[in-house]
Amino acid sequence: MNVVDIARLMPREEHPHGMADFEYDALFTRDKPVIFAYHGYPWLIHRLAYRRAGHGHLQLRQLMADARTRHHAWIREHGTDLPEVADWSWPY
């Protein structure tokens, strides 16, 4: 999804362009993580979306850092990628 007007991420009560929770949930869903590829200030995305459903997934950066550390240790010990990396395939 390409968000052109970043103010749409804000609640409607805080900005005229903002979305109600039901509109946000219809686009981003309540049960799936949302990943923002935003090339600006990271705190801005957090500020705009932290009160929405699924906000706990906004800590993805730490999960990815932990995965890289675990992968690095695995390849040094086994000389191959982690099984979930080596055996991964596109699911669609």
Helical/strand content category: mainly alpha
Which range does the strand content fall in?
under 5%
What global shape is seen?
Answer: elongated
Mean pLDDT over the residues = 83
Identify low-pLDDT runs: none
Number of helices: 4
Binned, the helix content reads: 40-55%
Mind telling me the C-alpha Rg? 17 Å
**Largest sheet report:** none
User: Ends: how far apart?
Assistant: 18 Å
Order of helices and strands: HHHH
Kindly state the number of beta strands: 0
Considering the chains and any ligands shown, give keywords for the structure.
92 residues; mainly alpha
Quick structural gist:
This protein is mostly helical. The chain has helices spanning 21-28, 42-49, 60-78, 83-86.
Write the layout of secondary structure elements.
Blueprint: H1 21-28, H2 42-49, H3 60-78, H4 83-86
Q: Would you give an account of this structure?
A:
- The chain is mainly α and 92 residues long.
- It has 4 helices and no strands.
- It has helices at 21-28, 42-49, 60-78, 83-86.
- It is elongated.
- The two termini are 18 Å apart.
